[in-house]
Amino acid sequence: MDTNIQKYRALIEAVDQGSFSRAAEVLEYSQPGVSRMIADLEHDWGVRLVERGRSGVTLTSEGEKIMPYVRRVVEEDRLLHARIDDVNGLDVGTIRIGTFSSVATHWLPQIIERFEKDYPHVDYELVMGDYAEIERWVMDGRVDCGFIAGKSRSKLDDMLLDRDEMLAVVPEGHPLAQLASCPLEALCAEPFMMLKQSGDTEVSGIFEHAGLKPQVRFVTWDDYAIMAMVEHGLGVSVLPSLILRRNPYRIVAKHLEMPAFRDIRVISRPGMSKVASKFMGYLRYRDDAAPAA
Length: 293
Known about the structure:
This protein is α/β, with parallel strands linked by helices. Helices cover 41% and strands 26% of the residues.
């Protein structure tokens, strides 16, 4: 990769991640290396691009004016290499995928396994984030495609892949575990573990639609942290059925009395590489056996 493009990507990731250390993890560089590349840009351009403070890495006012052009150069470089691969007819390259935990755990391994049999020379980069981050990464060209739940807020290519049922989750031996289905009102009577991602209302929206308000004790984006809390009797929750497949916790999943679902979609931008476009065609080939509730 061109040295300047490396520096531009380091700047973009440091700002997007809000941290030199997290940018280093994404780019597989050292933290001092990321810091040095940004310092080189500031020296070469004679402009202070970022502020380094307690709140993390943020753009200066000068950096905000320059950043759109930096993103554009990186995106054009990606498109250039995608077109070179297309011209050469090469089924090689790296497919970059923005995803969240349940899709990364339960869908992508089998999809990649099938794709790899046909295209064994392709590499993969999985970037974990919440729905808002994933959508931004697709828009900025940071990833080729991204998985989100719900409708995209931007004008991206959008394909519905599945309707994932939302299930009540309670500890083993809990009275609600004996019911055929779980009323929302009963969940509101218990301490509640809320799953929430940036810009996401897939759980809270279920209660709002019913005019109810759960007693939220714990809020996190980590599905597995919620399952552990429920297992230890600290409360109840509502989780997507996809994440509950092969879970190792002593919990019971029940259908909601008023069924609720989240739509899992894949979003992408036009102009992706040929090999990334081929990968998109494999997304429907997966084992979608639903877990017992």
